[in-house]
């Protein structure tokens, strides 16, 4: 009986991402755009970019804090949902950029800066959920 309650509560009480993909970035310049994805906005989840094990390709520093911009691909001009500077992801650390539940549409993200500078950037893993 207790296991059945836990199973039902777990199934109904947890929101799951509508989609995700994993990639990496290798010496990309500022303005580099990711692949596109479609978000139907059928759930209450935010869009998140998780970065792991990253570095600034020009300047060796003890930190690497990338800035990403979420872009909605429209028939006309592209809509920006703003830039987010993440926490440090150098070494074996995770950092996150989050946007609260953007409307349905086709999206991609663009890498903009690292540590506030326009340097090329690398990350061993990028995990995007929406």
Integer count of domains: 1
Query: Going across the major beta sheet, what is the strand order?
Result: 1-8-3-6
What is the highest CATH level, the class? Mainly Beta
Order of helices and strands: HEEEEEEEE
Rg (CA only)? 17 Å
Write out key terms for the chains shown:
4-stranded antiparallel sheet, 130 residues, 8 strands, single chain, mainly beta, Jelly Rolls
Task: Report a brief summary of the structure.
The protein is built from one helix and eight strands, in the order αββββββββ. It has 130 residues and is mainly β.
Structure description:
With 130 residues, the protein is mostly beta strands. It is globular. The longest helix is centred in the N-terminal third of the chain and has 12 residues, at 2-13. 9% of the residues lie in helices and 48% in strands. It has one helix at 2-13; strands spanning 20-28, 37-39, 47-56, 66-73, 79-85, 94-99, 105-114, 121-129. The model is unreliable at 1-14 (pLDDT under 50). Strand 4 and strand 5 form a beta hairpin. It has a four-stranded antiparallel beta sheet, with no helix packed on it. The protein has a four-stranded antiparallel beta sheet with strand order 2-7-4-5, with no helix packed on it. The chain has one domain: Jelly Rolls (Sandwich), CATH 2.60.120.
Task: Tell me the layout of helices and strands.
Elements: H1 2-13, E1 20-28, E2 37-39, E3 47-56, E4 66-73, E5 79-85, E6 94-99, E7 105-114, E8 121-129
């Amino acid at each position: 009986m207790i296991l059945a309650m836990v199973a039902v509560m777990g199934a109904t009480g947890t929101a799951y991402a509508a989609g995700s993909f994993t990639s990496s970035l290798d010496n990309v310049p500022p303005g580099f755009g990711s692949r596109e994805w479609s978000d139907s906005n059928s759930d209450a989840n935010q869009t998140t970019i998780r970065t792991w094990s990253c570095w600034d390709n020009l300047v060796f520093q003890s930190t690497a804090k990338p800035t990403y911009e979420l872009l909605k691909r429209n028939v006309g001009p592209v809509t920006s949902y703003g830039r987010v500077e993440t926490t440090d992801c150098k070494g074996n650390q995770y950092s996150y950029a989050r946007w609260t539940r953007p409307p349905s549409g086709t999206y991609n993200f663009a890498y903009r800066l690292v540590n506030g500078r326009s340097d090329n950037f690398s990350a061993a893993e990028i995990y995007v959920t929406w």
